[in-house]
User: What shape does this take?
Amino acid sequence: MNAVLEIIPLGGVGEFGHNCMAMRFGDEMLILDAGMGFPEEKVFGVDVSVPDFDFLEQYRDNITALILTHGHEDHLGALPYILKKFNVPVYCSHFTAGLAESKLEEHDLLGDTLLHRVEPRDVIDIGVFSVEFIRVSHSLVDCFSLAIRTPVGTVIHTGDYKVDETPVIGEPIDLRSFRRYGQEGVLALLSDSTNATVPGRTPSERAVIPALEEIFAEAPARIVIAAFASSIHRLQIILDISQQFNRKVCLLGRSMLKYVEVADRLGYLDIPDGLLVSFNQAKQTRDQEIVFLVTGSQGESRAALSQLAMQSYKGMTIEDGDTVVLSARIIPGNERAISRMIGFLYKRGANIIEEKRRLVHVSGHASQEDIRIMTEAVRPKFVVPIHGEYRMLFRHKEFVKNHLGYAEENIILIENGDVLELDGEQAKVVGKKEIGRTFIDETGFEAIRNDTVRERRHLANDGMITLVVSINVKTGELNAPPEIVSRGVRGFDANNGFSDEARRIVTASVTGASRDTLADEGLLKEHIRVELKRFIQKQTGGKPMIMPVILQV
Ligand SMILES: [Zn+2]
Assistant: This one.
């Protein structure tokens, strides 16, 4: 057997979200992260998407473990869906496990899953692989990079990280461990590219404190802060400042309550007694003494902040004098929803403070100078940019080449599905796997088939025609003129004669059909459909979905 290591990203490389990677040596395979994504198909009733795990089927007996770097949805959200297919042991930190548990519980998988909690610097042997968990800083807590010893050399997967020497919760990034591996020799560094286009260092989580203190000092009435529920450092800062300014805190939004519950239970959040109040208590509290910490920083229509802005949140609305702080970044694709929501907030009379106006948000990802620190600590033979759209991967490559002195051939740009082969000397892409997406409707956690989404898109773009044709069984002739009903079809309206024309085409197609066609309902349907489709396409250029119904009487 050839001693080669294969690295195959199933998602997250060349796109935002779906972070998931397979690492294979011989007949053993590790899966690193299982993230979800937020697809454009949202308008067609798709809530989220997960990588298509079908390609792993051929390695069913080879998968030995699933390792999670941290608890963000784009690294953890697909966990139930992959475990339903491949029930393998999961390794992650305590906090990630807390989040994973609540997710597995929703899917009724908790009892069937082997969840191993690991500490920083733990080393776990999994077959030919040996994995050390190295503490890194990020916007949530208890996050790891993975140092994976393989028979061809050590591979370090950074997960998501930034270099924060003064985090709010827990210890700083463990650069010593990275340097230890650097001295030992590292074959490849798979490194977060999310902020690779951003010069300088990413500020510490603490950097938002001064602006938030100013906002608290100035706010004349209620304060509403929208943040990612998973940004645990940020939540701690907001809780602390609220306490300092004698304001109670009320949490709104399902995920805000969930993350705070998990982080509090596991001891990551330090919540002063009596600080948190219920919604009812909050409504009894004076405006100058309350903070609402809410979900919906991305303008999600069902989340608390949008509902407050749209006056559809039960029991509360945004009012004149409220200060609304968006303490989060704009995830690409959400710009319009956020802008629209801000418009509504202004209409309600709120003062809006967003990232562009004050330093109320810092990123959790490595900027260029953080990437420098990481790369210089690890000194890998190969740098492989991961986690980000292609633009970011490319800029990561450029930075490493131009500023860290790496040769072009030692920086490997890969995309989802690429099979990257490493033999200790060389790294090259040797193949490509077809890896699609599975769309999920979160209301029932059910996968929506790709062709269902395709049908929905088809209906949305071109509309639908149903036609009912009643045929005399004996003679094969029409009993009555065909009935045609259209919905959303360009060119069809009751008065323009187009429907009559279409009816004539359908009649002609039935009378012109051969005896064999008439005898076979399936053939006849297809025959009518094709004739009508041809006519409509010629007349209007549209391609509506056509659904013939045949009644044999
Ligand atoms: Zn993350």
